[in-house]
Amino acid sequence: xxxxxxxxxxxxxxxxxxxxxxxxxxxxxxxxxxxxxxxxxxxxxxxxxxxxxxxxxxxxxxxxxxxxxxxxxxxxxxxxxxxxxxxxxxxxxxxxxxxxxxxx
Length: 104
Description:
Blueprint: E1 29-30, E2 39-40, E3 49-53, E4 60-69, E5 74-78, E6 93-95
Antiparallel strand pairs: 1-2, 3-4, 3-6, 4-5
């Protein structure tokens, strides 16, 4: 086949490109759990300040508090206006980071 260059067309086997979005079906460990423990699944208690993973770009957004633990994840309260939001799966919620270390 040789060396590929920008603009070259390449045949993709069996149906081409997979256009499905990534899913969050793997449980995320709560690595910031007290005592250095790591647990999988709903492990945050009501009143815990959390970050929520954006569905658009995967970035973590601060400004939420766990209002209730549900069978499917968490019901969160937005700190800005106190609004209670619908359930979010536990994979998209993490304990709020104590400090930002983006420059490290």
